[in-house]
Write a structure and sequence with these properties.
The chain has helices spanning 20-31, 44-58, 72-86, 109-137, 158-177, 196-209, 213-221, 233-242, and strands spanning 11-14, 35-39, 62-65, 91-94, 140-145, 183-190, 193-194, 231-232, 255-258. By secondary structure, the chain is α/β, with parallel strands linked by helices. The protein has two domains: 11-191 and 232-256, Rossmann fold; 193-229, no CATH class. The longest helix has 29 residues, at 109-137. The two termini are 31 Å apart.
């Protein structure tokens, strides 16, 4: 956790940040002094405890907006409200996402539409709406959580792979558009990350396949990762935090792999 305070009085919006990778990134940014806006679904009491806990731990302002990131008008309303309270969003982290697995000829159209809306279009809307104030300030950091699947494909994940490849395209395009405006635009491409969502899947997968939980981890989930180790939320958060520093000001339009060597082959 950074204690250098390089984001003191900056404002960070992290979508999909009530758990998992998004929450880890929100914590890292708060630890560097940023005021943080959380977004995501969950039990209101749990989210309020989370919000208050972050504010108390790091001594920053923490807000929560439950905007549905599949809905353009709710995204616009959230960004308008954040800018009204804080001014510009200095750090935008597009992290909200969802997954569904099925063969392409059996892939439910509603799942395709949902994944493209949440994993791709939401980032487009958030970026286009947050950019004007960033340009006015002459400083900004836009970071999108992509995936190893922004670089390589896997079967049965047509919508997810398409969306993450799209994030790669948005990242490169916007980076070129704002390269001389003090704004960097990058994507982080994690492999399999150890999150509560993944952890919950392991016992069921083990039973279904007649394997031990350890076999499921090594031979099923981590088959593509040469390290045979999960990426941690803290590692992804540390990379995101680095991309906000002055030391990363020349890194833009990049796809930052953090995947235990998955995409090296």
């Amino acid at each position: 956790m950074s204690k250098d305070g390089h984001l003191k009085d900056r404002v960070a919006l992290v979508t999909g940040s009530t758990s998992g990778i998004g929450l880890g990134i929100a914590r890292s940014l708060a630890g560097a002094g940023a005021h943080v806006v959380l977004n995501g679904f969950g039990d209101p009491a749990v989210i309020e405890k989370l919000r208050a806990g972050l504010a108390a731990e790091f001594g920053v302002e923490v807000r929560y907006f439950g905007a549905d990131m599949t809905k353009e008008d709710e995204i616009a309303g959230m960004i308008r409200d954040v800018e009204r309270e804080f001014g510009a969003i200095d750090v935008l982290v597009n992290n909200a996402g969802v997954q569904h697995v099925a063969p392409v000829d059996e892939f439910p159209v509603d799942k395709w539409n949902l994944i493209l809306a949440l994993n791709l279009s939401a980032a487009f809307h958030a970026i286009r709406l947050a950019l004007p104030a960033m340009k006015q300030k002459g400083w900004g950091r836009i970071i999108s959580t992509a995936s190893a699947h922004a670089l390589v494909a896997s079967p049965f994940k047509v919508a997810y792979v398409a969306a993450k490849h799209g994030i790669a395209g948005i990242t490169k395009t916007v980076a070129l558009e704002v390269a001389d405006k003090g704004i960097t635009v990058n994507a982080i491409c994690p492999g399999y990350v150890w999150t509560p969502l993944v952890e919950k899947q392991i016992p069921d997968t083990a039973r279904a396949r007649g394997m031990t939980e350890e076999q499921v981890k090594k031979d099923v989930i981590l088959a593509a990762q040469p390290t045979k180790e999960f990426v941690t939320v803290e590692e992804v958060a540390a990379l995101a935090l680095f991309l906000t520093t002055d030391g990363a000001r020349s890194i833009t339009g990049s796809l930052q792999s953090i995947d235990g060597g998955w995409t090296a082959a």
